[in-house]
Design brief:
7-stranded mixed β-sheet, TATA-Binding Protein, binds 1,6-di-O-phosphono-alpha-D-glucopyranose, 3 domains, 18 helices, Alpha-D-Glucose-1,6-Bisphosphate, Chain A, domain 3, alpha/beta, about 550 residues
Length: about 550
Protein backbone atom coordinates (compact mmCIF):
# COMPACT_ATOMS: atom_id res chain seq x y z
CA UNK A 1 0.00 0.00 0.00
CA UNK A 2 1.35 3.43 -0.95
CA UNK A 3 1.60 5.84 1.97
CA UNK A 4 2.13 9.60 1.91
CA UNK A 5 4.09 10.63 4.98
CA UNK A 6 4.10 14.24 6.19
CA UNK A 7 7.57 15.71 6.73
CA UNK A 8 9.40 19.01 7.21
CA UNK A 9 12.52 20.31 5.45
CA UNK A 10 15.97 19.75 6.98
CA UNK A 11 18.65 22.40 6.64
CA UNK A 12 21.81 21.64 4.72
CA UNK A 13 20.65 19.05 2.18
CA UNK A 14 22.56 20.69 -0.65
CA UNK A 15 24.60 18.08 -2.57
CA UNK A 16 28.35 18.78 -2.52
CA UNK A 17 31.09 17.78 -4.97
CA UNK A 18 29.56 14.32 -5.18
CA UNK A 19 26.08 14.01 -3.68
CA UNK A 20 24.86 14.60 -0.15
CA UNK A 21 27.40 13.51 2.47
CA UNK A 22 26.76 13.75 6.19
CA UNK A 23 27.48 11.90 9.38
CA UNK A 24 25.60 8.60 9.75
CA UNK A 25 23.90 10.07 12.82
CA UNK A 26 22.51 12.89 10.68
CA UNK A 27 21.15 10.42 8.12
CA UNK A 28 19.62 8.35 10.93
CA UNK A 29 17.23 11.13 11.92
CA UNK A 30 13.66 10.12 11.08
CA UNK A 31 12.70 11.24 7.54
CA UNK A 32 16.20 12.58 6.72
CA UNK A 33 17.13 10.07 4.00
CA UNK A 34 13.50 9.90 2.82
CA UNK A 35 13.36 13.69 2.36
CA UNK A 36 16.44 13.67 0.18
CA UNK A 37 15.36 10.67 -1.89
CA UNK A 38 11.90 12.20 -2.46
CA UNK A 39 13.59 15.47 -3.45
CA UNK A 40 15.62 13.53 -6.03
CA UNK A 41 12.44 12.03 -7.45
CA UNK A 42 10.65 15.39 -7.36
CA UNK A 43 13.44 16.84 -9.54
CA UNK A 44 13.03 14.16 -12.22
CA UNK A 45 10.43 14.00 -14.96
CA UNK A 46 8.70 11.15 -16.76
CA UNK A 47 10.21 8.22 -14.92
CA UNK A 48 7.00 6.32 -14.25
CA UNK A 49 7.39 2.72 -15.38
CA UNK A 50 11.14 3.16 -16.00
CA UNK A 51 14.14 1.37 -14.49
CA UNK A 52 16.29 2.61 -11.62
CA UNK A 53 19.60 1.11 -10.45
CA UNK A 54 20.28 1.07 -6.70
CA UNK A 55 23.38 0.02 -4.81
CA UNK A 56 25.98 1.23 -2.39
CA UNK A 57 29.47 0.71 -1.05
CA UNK A 58 28.29 -1.42 1.89
CA UNK A 59 29.13 1.07 4.57
CA UNK A 60 27.21 1.22 7.84
CA UNK A 61 23.53 2.16 7.19
CA UNK A 62 23.74 0.97 3.53
CA UNK A 63 21.39 -1.96 4.21
CA UNK A 64 18.71 0.24 5.76
CA UNK A 65 18.78 2.98 3.12
CA UNK A 66 18.70 0.48 0.22
CA UNK A 67 15.36 -0.78 1.57
CA UNK A 68 14.07 2.77 2.08
CA UNK A 69 15.03 3.65 -1.51
CA UNK A 70 13.41 0.48 -2.87
CA UNK A 71 10.11 1.18 -1.13
CA UNK A 72 10.14 4.83 -2.22
CA UNK A 73 11.01 3.94 -5.82
CA UNK A 74 8.01 1.59 -5.90
CA UNK A 75 5.69 4.17 -4.34
CA UNK A 76 6.85 6.87 -6.75
CA UNK A 77 6.08 4.73 -9.79
CA UNK A 78 9.33 3.23 -11.07
CA UNK A 79 8.65 0.08 -13.07
CA UNK A 80 11.77 -1.80 -12.10
CA UNK A 81 14.81 -1.55 -9.85
CA UNK A 82 18.07 -3.35 -10.53
CA UNK A 83 19.87 -3.70 -7.22
CA UNK A 84 23.22 -5.25 -6.32
CA UNK A 85 23.18 -8.43 -4.20
CA UNK A 86 23.17 -7.43 -0.52
CA UNK A 87 22.67 -3.85 -1.68
CA UNK A 88 26.26 -3.64 -2.94
CA UNK A 89 27.54 -1.96 -6.10
CA UNK A 90 30.76 -0.10 -6.69
CA UNK A 91 30.21 3.36 -8.15
CA UNK A 92 31.67 2.47 -11.58
CA UNK A 93 29.71 -0.81 -11.65
CA UNK A 94 26.52 1.15 -10.92
CA UNK A 95 27.36 3.55 -13.73
CA UNK A 96 27.85 0.60 -16.08
CA UNK A 97 24.57 -1.05 -15.07
CA UNK A 98 22.66 2.18 -15.74
CA UNK A 99 24.18 2.42 -19.23
CA UNK A 100 23.94 -1.27 -20.09
CA UNK A 101 20.27 -1.49 -19.11
CA UNK A 102 19.38 1.93 -20.48
CA UNK A 103 18.01 2.72 -17.05
CA UNK A 104 16.45 6.07 -16.23
CA UNK A 105 19.11 6.65 -13.58
CA UNK A 106 20.55 5.33 -10.36
CA UNK A 107 20.84 5.99 -6.66
CA UNK A 108 24.29 5.28 -5.25
CA UNK A 109 24.75 5.10 -1.51
CA UNK A 110 28.27 6.11 -0.65
CA UNK A 111 30.44 8.62 1.11
CA UNK A 112 33.31 7.38 -1.01
CA UNK A 113 36.68 7.66 0.73
CA UNK A 114 35.21 9.09 3.94
CA UNK A 115 35.38 6.82 7.03
CA UNK A 116 32.37 4.61 7.82
CA UNK A 117 30.75 3.01 10.86
CA UNK A 118 28.13 4.37 13.26
CA UNK A 119 30.21 7.51 13.86
CA UNK A 120 31.42 7.75 10.26
CA UNK A 121 29.91 9.25 7.15
CA UNK A 122 27.11 8.26 4.81
CA UNK A 123 26.03 9.65 1.46
CA UNK A 124 23.45 9.50 -1.30
CA UNK A 125 23.91 10.59 -4.88
CA UNK A 126 21.87 10.39 -8.02
CA UNK A 127 23.30 9.42 -11.41
CA UNK A 128 21.48 10.22 -14.62
CA UNK A 129 20.70 8.02 -17.65
CA UNK A 130 24.20 8.50 -19.11
CA UNK A 131 25.50 6.78 -15.94
CA UNK A 132 27.14 9.95 -14.66
CA UNK A 133 26.65 12.07 -11.55
CA UNK A 134 23.72 14.47 -11.78
CA UNK A 135 24.80 17.79 -13.29
CA UNK A 136 24.71 20.98 -11.21
CA UNK A 137 21.35 22.05 -12.63
CA UNK A 138 19.80 18.85 -11.31
CA UNK A 139 21.55 18.89 -7.93
CA UNK A 140 20.39 22.49 -7.44
CA UNK A 141 16.82 21.44 -8.29
CA UNK A 142 17.08 18.64 -5.69
CA UNK A 143 18.31 21.12 -3.12
CA UNK A 144 15.40 23.47 -3.88
CA UNK A 145 12.96 20.58 -3.30
CA UNK A 146 14.62 19.70 0.02
CA UNK A 147 13.81 23.20 1.23
CA UNK A 148 10.09 23.00 0.58
CA UNK A 149 9.31 19.31 0.95
CA UNK A 150 6.13 18.58 2.90
CA UNK A 151 5.61 14.86 2.27
CA UNK A 152 7.17 11.77 0.75
CA UNK A 153 5.77 8.59 -0.74
CA UNK A 154 6.65 5.13 0.42
CA UNK A 155 5.18 1.66 0.40
CA UNK A 156 4.08 -0.26 3.46
CA UNK A 157 5.98 -3.47 2.75
CA UNK A 158 8.49 -5.83 4.32
CA UNK A 159 12.18 -5.65 3.32
CA UNK A 160 13.09 -7.26 0.00
CA UNK A 161 15.44 -10.23 0.40
CA UNK A 162 18.67 -9.08 -1.27
CA UNK A 163 20.80 -12.05 -0.15
CA UNK A 164 20.31 -13.99 -3.36
CA UNK A 165 20.37 -13.19 -7.04
CA UNK A 166 16.83 -13.31 -8.40
CA UNK A 167 13.57 -11.50 -9.09
CA UNK A 168 10.98 -10.08 -6.68
CA UNK A 169 8.02 -7.76 -6.82
CA UNK A 170 7.51 -4.80 -4.56
CA UNK A 171 3.97 -3.50 -5.02
CA UNK A 172 3.71 -3.26 -8.78
CA UNK A 173 7.49 -2.74 -9.23
CA UNK A 174 9.90 -5.46 -10.36
CA UNK A 175 13.11 -5.90 -8.38
CA UNK A 176 16.05 -7.70 -9.96
CA UNK A 177 18.90 -8.61 -7.62
CA UNK A 178 22.14 -8.90 -9.63
CA UNK A 179 25.67 -10.01 -8.89
CA UNK A 180 27.60 -6.75 -8.37
CA UNK A 181 30.74 -8.00 -10.14
CA UNK A 182 29.67 -10.00 -13.24
CA UNK A 183 28.69 -7.25 -15.70
CA UNK A 184 31.52 -4.97 -14.65
CA UNK A 185 34.11 -7.74 -15.02
CA UNK A 186 32.75 -8.57 -18.48
CA UNK A 187 33.10 -4.92 -19.50
CA UNK A 188 36.75 -4.88 -18.39
CA UNK A 189 37.46 -7.90 -20.61
CA UNK A 190 36.27 -5.95 -23.65
CA UNK A 191 38.69 -3.09 -22.93
CA UNK A 192 41.94 -4.76 -21.92
CA UNK A 193 44.17 -7.50 -23.29
CA UNK A 194 43.71 -10.08 -20.55
CA UNK A 195 45.86 -12.67 -22.39
CA UNK A 196 48.77 -10.26 -22.61
CA UNK A 197 48.46 -9.39 -18.93
CA UNK A 198 48.23 -13.11 -18.04
CA UNK A 199 51.44 -13.78 -19.97
CA UNK A 200 53.23 -10.99 -18.08
CA UNK A 201 52.02 -12.42 -14.76
CA UNK A 202 53.25 -15.88 -15.78
CA UNK A 203 56.64 -14.40 -16.55
CA UNK A 204 56.87 -13.09 -12.99
CA UNK A 205 55.00 -9.79 -12.53
CA UNK A 206 53.83 -9.53 -8.92
CA UNK A 207 51.35 -7.13 -7.39
CA UNK A 208 49.35 -6.27 -4.27
CA UNK A 209 45.93 -4.66 -4.44
CA UNK A 210 44.55 -3.09 -1.28
CA UNK A 211 40.75 -3.27 -1.19
CA UNK A 212 40.85 -1.22 2.02
CA UNK A 213 38.04 -3.40 3.48
CA UNK A 214 35.71 -1.65 1.08
CA UNK A 215 33.71 -2.46 -2.03
CA UNK A 216 36.46 -3.42 -4.50
CA UNK A 217 37.67 -6.50 -2.60
CA UNK A 218 35.28 -8.89 -4.44
CA UNK A 219 35.91 -7.14 -7.78
CA UNK A 220 39.67 -7.35 -7.24
CA UNK A 221 39.60 -11.02 -6.26
CA UNK A 222 37.43 -11.97 -9.23
CA UNK A 223 39.40 -10.04 -11.83
CA UNK A 224 42.97 -10.02 -10.55
CA UNK A 225 43.20 -13.41 -8.85
CA UNK A 226 40.53 -15.64 -10.40
CA UNK A 227 40.56 -14.30 -13.97
CA UNK A 228 44.05 -12.92 -14.56
CA UNK A 229 45.89 -15.42 -12.40
CA UNK A 230 47.69 -13.33 -9.84
CA UNK A 231 48.49 -15.42 -6.75
CA UNK A 232 45.79 -15.82 -4.10
CA UNK A 233 46.46 -13.18 -1.47
CA UNK A 234 47.30 -10.53 -4.07
CA UNK A 235 44.18 -8.70 -2.89
CA UNK A 236 44.63 -7.57 0.69
CA UNK A 237 41.84 -6.21 2.93
CA UNK A 238 39.51 -7.79 0.40
CA UNK A 239 36.37 -8.27 2.49
CA UNK A 240 34.01 -5.28 2.53
CA UNK A 241 33.23 -4.24 6.12
CA UNK A 242 30.58 -1.71 7.23
CA UNK A 243 33.22 0.31 9.08
CA UNK A 244 36.13 -0.49 6.69
CA UNK A 245 37.88 -2.14 9.64
CA UNK A 246 38.09 1.26 11.32
CA UNK A 247 40.32 2.58 8.53
CA UNK A 248 39.92 5.52 6.23
CA UNK A 249 39.23 3.94 2.79
CA UNK A 250 41.17 6.61 0.96
CA UNK A 251 43.84 5.23 -1.37
CA UNK A 252 46.75 7.56 -0.81
CA UNK A 253 50.21 7.50 0.73
CA UNK A 254 48.80 8.18 4.18
CA UNK A 255 45.88 5.77 4.35
CA UNK A 256 47.31 2.94 2.23
CA UNK A 257 50.58 3.17 4.13
CA UNK A 258 51.26 -0.53 4.57
CA UNK A 259 50.93 -1.19 0.85
CA UNK A 260 52.99 1.86 -0.08
CA UNK A 261 55.73 1.09 2.42
CA UNK A 262 56.12 -2.41 1.04
CA UNK A 263 56.10 -1.48 -2.65
CA UNK A 264 58.08 1.74 -2.32
CA UNK A 265 60.79 0.05 -0.26
CA UNK A 266 61.71 -1.95 -3.36
CA UNK A 267 61.48 -5.23 -1.44
CA UNK A 268 57.79 -5.83 -2.11
CA UNK A 269 55.89 -6.64 -5.29
CA UNK A 270 56.54 -4.96 -8.66
CA UNK A 271 53.24 -3.15 -8.71
CA UNK A 272 50.87 -1.89 -6.03
CA UNK A 273 47.40 -0.41 -6.25
CA UNK A 274 44.47 0.45 -4.04
CA UNK A 275 40.92 1.67 -4.41
CA UNK A 276 38.57 3.54 -2.13
CA UNK A 277 35.27 3.05 -0.29
CA UNK A 278 33.11 2.91 -3.42
CA UNK A 279 35.71 1.78 -5.95
CA UNK A 280 36.09 4.86 -8.09
CA UNK A 281 39.49 6.08 -6.90
CA UNK A 282 42.88 4.50 -7.52
CA UNK A 283 46.40 4.65 -6.16
CA UNK A 284 49.29 3.47 -8.34
CA UNK A 285 52.75 2.62 -6.98
CA UNK A 286 55.63 0.72 -8.52
CA UNK A 287 58.81 -0.67 -7.02
CA UNK A 288 60.40 2.40 -5.49
CA UNK A 289 58.10 4.92 -7.19
CA UNK A 290 54.79 6.61 -6.39
CA UNK A 291 52.85 7.78 -9.43
CA UNK A 292 50.89 10.94 -8.75
CA UNK A 293 47.31 10.80 -10.04
CA UNK A 294 48.15 13.70 -12.37
CA UNK A 295 51.12 11.83 -13.85
CA UNK A 296 49.05 8.67 -14.04
CA UNK A 297 46.46 10.47 -16.18
CA UNK A 298 49.17 11.79 -18.51
CA UNK A 299 50.91 8.42 -18.80
CA UNK A 300 47.64 6.59 -19.41
CA UNK A 301 46.63 9.11 -22.07
CA UNK A 302 49.96 8.69 -23.83
CA UNK A 303 49.80 4.87 -23.74
CA UNK A 304 46.18 3.82 -23.77
CA UNK A 305 46.23 2.91 -27.47
CA UNK A 306 48.09 -0.20 -26.22
CA UNK A 307 44.80 -1.47 -24.74
CA UNK A 308 42.43 -3.05 -27.29
CA UNK A 309 39.45 -0.92 -26.21
CA UNK A 310 41.33 2.25 -27.18
CA UNK A 311 43.48 1.14 -30.08
CA UNK A 312 41.69 3.54 -32.43
CA UNK A 313 43.13 6.43 -30.40
CA UNK A 314 41.50 9.03 -28.20
CA UNK A 315 39.37 12.06 -29.00
CA UNK A 316 40.67 14.32 -26.25
CA UNK A 317 41.67 14.54 -22.60
CA UNK A 318 39.95 16.28 -19.70
CA UNK A 319 41.29 17.09 -16.26
CA UNK A 320 39.97 19.00 -13.29
CA UNK A 321 41.51 22.43 -12.85
CA UNK A 322 43.66 21.56 -9.79
CA UNK A 323 45.09 18.48 -11.56
CA UNK A 324 48.61 19.13 -12.84
CA UNK A 325 49.30 20.23 -16.39
CA UNK A 326 51.12 16.97 -17.24
CA UNK A 327 48.17 15.76 -19.34
CA UNK A 328 48.11 19.04 -21.28
CA UNK A 329 51.60 18.30 -22.58
CA UNK A 330 50.53 14.88 -23.81
CA UNK A 331 47.44 16.37 -25.47
CA UNK A 332 49.54 19.06 -27.15
CA UNK A 333 51.94 16.49 -28.58
CA UNK A 334 49.06 14.37 -29.85
CA UNK A 335 47.38 17.41 -31.37
CA UNK A 336 44.39 16.98 -29.06
CA UNK A 337 42.50 19.33 -26.80
CA UNK A 338 42.88 19.08 -23.03
CA UNK A 339 39.76 20.40 -21.28
CA UNK A 340 40.07 21.98 -17.84
CA UNK A 341 36.95 21.54 -15.72
CA UNK A 342 36.00 22.32 -12.12
CA UNK A 343 36.57 19.62 -9.49
CA UNK A 344 33.88 16.92 -9.65
CA UNK A 345 33.40 14.05 -12.07
CA UNK A 346 30.00 15.46 -13.04
CA UNK A 347 31.75 18.06 -15.19
CA UNK A 348 33.26 15.39 -17.45
CA UNK A 349 29.89 13.87 -18.41
CA UNK A 350 29.06 16.30 -21.22
CA UNK A 351 32.56 16.04 -22.73
CA UNK A 352 32.42 12.23 -22.70
CA UNK A 353 28.86 12.14 -24.09
CA UNK A 354 29.85 14.50 -26.90
CA UNK A 355 33.01 12.48 -27.62
CA UNK A 356 35.20 15.50 -26.98
CA UNK A 357 37.23 13.56 -24.40
CA UNK A 358 37.98 9.85 -24.08
CA UNK A 359 40.02 9.89 -20.87
CA UNK A 360 39.56 12.08 -17.80
CA UNK A 361 41.40 12.45 -14.56
CA UNK A 362 41.63 14.29 -11.29
CA UNK A 363 44.42 14.86 -8.81
CA UNK A 364 42.11 13.35 -6.18
CA UNK A 365 43.05 9.83 -7.29
CA UNK A 366 40.42 9.61 -10.00
CA UNK A 367 40.94 8.35 -13.55
CA UNK A 368 38.46 6.97 -16.05
CA UNK A 369 37.32 6.86 -19.63
CA UNK A 370 34.22 6.85 -21.78
CA UNK A 371 33.47 3.21 -20.83
CA UNK A 372 31.33 4.53 -17.93
CA UNK A 373 30.54 8.02 -16.62
CA UNK A 374 32.35 7.74 -13.28
CA UNK A 375 35.98 7.51 -12.41
CA UNK A 376 36.96 3.90 -12.09
CA UNK A 377 39.59 2.53 -9.72
CA UNK A 378 40.01 -0.97 -11.13
CA UNK A 379 39.87 0.33 -14.69
CA UNK A 380 42.97 2.42 -13.92
CA UNK A 381 44.69 -0.58 -12.35
CA UNK A 382 43.94 -2.76 -15.38
CA UNK A 383 45.05 -0.01 -17.74
CA UNK A 384 48.39 0.15 -15.92
CA UNK A 385 48.68 -3.65 -16.06
CA UNK A 386 47.95 -3.56 -19.79
CA UNK A 387 50.59 -0.86 -20.31
CA UNK A 388 53.14 -2.73 -18.16
CA UNK A 389 52.47 -5.93 -20.12
CA UNK A 390 52.63 -4.25 -23.53
CA UNK A 391 55.76 -2.19 -22.84
CA UNK A 392 57.51 -4.93 -20.86
CA UNK A 393 58.98 -2.27 -18.60
CA UNK A 394 58.70 -1.47 -14.91
CA UNK A 395 56.50 1.31 -13.53
CA UNK A 396 59.62 3.36 -12.72
CA UNK A 397 61.02 2.96 -16.26
CA UNK A 398 57.73 4.05 -17.78
CA UNK A 399 57.43 7.10 -15.52
CA UNK A 400 61.04 8.19 -16.05
CA UNK A 401 60.73 7.79 -19.82
CA UNK A 402 57.55 9.86 -19.71
CA UNK A 403 59.25 12.67 -17.81
CA UNK A 404 62.22 12.56 -20.18
CA UNK A 405 59.87 12.99 -23.13
CA UNK A 406 57.40 15.53 -21.73
CA UNK A 407 59.14 17.06 -18.72
CA UNK A 408 58.07 16.58 -15.10
CA UNK A 409 55.29 18.43 -13.31
CA UNK A 410 56.31 18.38 -9.66
CA UNK A 411 53.04 18.31 -7.79
CA UNK A 412 51.72 18.15 -4.25
CA UNK A 413 48.45 18.76 -2.43
CA UNK A 414 48.39 20.05 1.14
CA UNK A 415 45.13 19.55 3.02
CA UNK A 416 44.22 21.44 6.17
CA UNK A 417 41.34 19.34 7.46
CA UNK A 418 38.53 20.28 9.83
CA UNK A 419 39.45 23.93 9.91
CA UNK A 420 36.89 26.30 11.42
CA UNK A 421 34.42 27.08 8.60
CA UNK A 422 34.31 30.82 9.27
CA UNK A 423 38.13 31.00 9.31
CA UNK A 424 38.38 29.09 6.04
CA UNK A 425 35.75 31.26 4.37
CA UNK A 426 37.53 34.35 5.61
CA UNK A 427 40.82 33.07 4.18
CA UNK A 428 39.27 32.42 0.77
CA UNK A 429 37.59 35.85 0.76
CA UNK A 430 40.90 37.45 1.72
CA UNK A 431 42.58 35.77 -1.23
CA UNK A 432 39.80 36.80 -3.58
CA UNK A 433 40.17 40.42 -2.51
CA UNK A 434 43.92 40.31 -3.05
CA UNK A 435 43.72 38.90 -6.58
CA UNK A 436 44.32 42.08 -8.61
CA UNK A 437 47.25 43.19 -6.43
CA UNK A 438 48.97 39.79 -6.55
CA UNK A 439 49.69 39.97 -10.26
CA UNK A 440 53.28 41.10 -10.75
CA UNK A 441 54.37 39.86 -7.31
CA UNK A 442 56.22 36.55 -6.73
CA UNK A 443 56.33 35.93 -10.53
CA UNK A 444 52.52 35.69 -10.56
CA UNK A 445 51.33 36.37 -14.11
CA UNK A 446 47.64 35.77 -13.59
CA UNK A 447 45.46 35.47 -10.50
CA UNK A 448 41.78 34.58 -10.69
CA UNK A 449 38.85 32.64 -9.28
CA UNK A 450 38.33 29.76 -11.71
CA UNK A 451 35.11 29.73 -13.71
CA UNK A 452 34.09 27.11 -16.27
CA UNK A 453 31.98 27.54 -19.36
CA UNK A 454 30.73 24.13 -20.41
CA UNK A 455 31.40 23.89 -24.16
CA UNK A 456 28.45 21.55 -24.68
CA UNK A 457 25.54 23.02 -22.75
CA UNK A 458 26.86 26.56 -22.32
CA UNK A 459 26.37 26.56 -18.54
CA UNK A 460 28.75 28.67 -16.46
CA UNK A 461 30.10 27.53 -13.08
CA UNK A 462 31.90 30.14 -11.00
CA UNK A 463 33.91 30.27 -7.77
CA UNK A 464 35.80 27.02 -8.41
CA UNK A 465 39.14 27.85 -6.80
CA UNK A 466 41.67 30.64 -6.51
CA UNK A 467 44.51 30.28 -9.01
CA UNK A 468 47.89 31.94 -8.81
CA UNK A 469 49.51 31.23 -12.17
CA UNK A 470 53.23 31.82 -12.59
CA UNK A 471 55.78 31.65 -15.34
CA UNK A 472 56.46 28.27 -16.99
CA UNK A 473 53.38 26.46 -15.66
CA UNK A 474 54.00 26.90 -11.91
CA UNK A 475 50.75 27.25 -9.97
CA UNK A 476 49.35 27.58 -6.46
CA UNK A 477 45.65 26.85 -6.13
CA UNK A 478 43.32 27.15 -3.16
CA UNK A 479 39.86 25.68 -2.78
CA UNK A 480 37.57 24.39 -0.08
CA UNK A 481 36.64 20.73 -0.33
CA UNK A 482 33.06 19.88 -1.18
CA UNK A 483 33.14 16.37 0.29
CA UNK A 484 33.97 16.85 3.97
CA UNK A 485 31.38 16.52 6.72
CA UNK A 486 33.05 18.40 9.57
CA UNK A 487 34.19 22.05 9.46
CA UNK A 488 36.04 23.00 6.29
CA UNK A 489 38.96 21.38 4.50
CA UNK A 490 41.30 23.81 2.80
CA UNK A 491 43.10 22.24 -0.13
CA UNK A 492 46.24 23.87 -1.47
CA UNK A 493 47.58 22.47 -4.75
CA UNK A 494 51.18 23.30 -5.62
CA UNK A 495 52.90 22.62 -8.92
CA UNK A 496 55.95 23.49 -10.99
CA UNK A 497 57.24 22.27 -14.32
CA UNK A 498 60.79 21.02 -14.92
CA UNK A 499 61.92 20.18 -18.43
CA UNK A 500 65.54 19.28 -17.58
CA UNK A 501 65.86 15.48 -17.09
CA UNK A 502 68.89 15.99 -14.84
CA UNK A 503 66.52 17.66 -12.37
CA UNK A 504 63.80 15.03 -12.45
CA UNK A 505 64.88 13.09 -9.38
CA UNK A 506 64.34 15.56 -6.59
CA UNK A 507 62.14 14.81 -3.61
CA UNK A 508 58.79 16.50 -4.35
CA UNK A 509 58.42 18.59 -1.19
CA UNK A 510 61.98 19.90 -1.54
CA UNK A 511 61.51 20.64 -5.23
CA UNK A 512 58.42 22.67 -4.35
CA UNK A 513 59.74 24.20 -1.10
CA UNK A 514 59.69 27.83 -2.27
CA UNK A 515 56.17 27.57 -3.63
CA UNK A 516 55.00 25.82 -0.48
CA UNK A 517 56.32 28.67 1.65
CA UNK A 518 54.67 31.16 -0.68
CA UNK A 519 51.34 29.29 -0.53
CA UNK A 520 51.30 29.66 3.23
CA UNK A 521 52.32 33.29 3.40
CA UNK A 522 50.11 34.69 0.63
CA UNK A 523 47.00 33.14 2.18
CA UNK A 524 48.15 33.76 5.79
CA UNK A 525 47.18 30.19 6.57
CA UNK A 526 48.67 30.01 10.05
CA UNK A 527 47.41 33.42 11.12
CA UNK A 528 43.85 32.81 9.91
CA UNK A 529 43.40 29.11 10.72
CA UNK A 530 45.90 28.49 13.50
CA UNK A 531 47.47 25.71 11.44
CA UNK A 532 51.21 25.80 10.91
CA UNK A 533 51.24 22.52 8.96
CA UNK A 534 48.79 20.65 6.74
CA UNK A 535 47.05 17.54 8.10
CA UNK A 536 47.59 15.44 4.98
CA UNK A 537 50.16 15.81 2.23
CA UNK A 538 49.69 13.83 -0.98
C1 LIG B 1 34.64 13.31 -5.23
C2 LIG B 1 34.37 13.73 -6.64
C3 LIG B 1 35.64 14.06 -7.33
C4 LIG B 1 36.42 15.10 -6.55
C5 LIG B 1 36.65 14.60 -5.14
C6 LIG B 1 37.30 15.62 -4.24
O1 LIG B 1 35.34 12.11 -5.23
O2 LIG B 1 33.69 12.71 -7.34
O3 LIG B 1 35.33 14.50 -8.61
O4 LIG B 1 37.65 15.35 -7.15
O5 LIG B 1 35.40 14.29 -4.57
O6 LIG B 1 36.45 16.66 -4.05
P1 LIG B 1 36.76 17.76 -2.96
O7 LIG B 1 38.12 18.30 -3.29
O8 LIG B 1 35.65 18.76 -3.17
O9 LIG B 1 36.75 17.10 -1.61
P2 LIG B 1 34.83 10.90 -4.37
O10 LIG B 1 35.79 9.81 -4.66
O11 LIG B 1 34.86 11.41 -2.96
O12 LIG B 1 33.44 10.65 -4.85
Amino acid sequence: MIETIATKPFDGQRPGTSGLRKKVTVFQQPHYAENFIQSIFNSLESFVGKTLVIGGDGRFYNKEVVQIALRMAAANGFGKVIVGQNGLLSTPAASHLIRKNQAFGGIILSASHNPGGPDGDFGIKYNASNGGPAPEKLTEAMFAHTQTIASYKTLRHADVNLDKIGHHTLGSMQVEVVDPVTDYAALMQTLFDFDLIRARIKSGLTMKFDGMSAITGPYGKHILEDTLGFAQGTVINGTPLPDFGGHHPDPNLVHAKELCDSVLSGNGPDFGAASDGDGDRNLIVGKGIYVTPSDSLAIIAANMHLAPGYKAGIAGIARSMPTSGAADRVAAKMGLKCYETPTGWKFFGNLLDANKATVCGEESFGTGSNHVREKDGLWAVLMWLNILAARKQSVADIVHAHWAEYGRNYYTRHDYEEVDLAAATNLMNGLRNQLPSLVGQHSIEKADDFAYDDPIDGSRTTGQGIRLLMANGARVIYRLSGTGTAGATLRVYIEKYESDPSKHNQETQSALANLITLSRSVAQIEKLTGRAQPTVIT
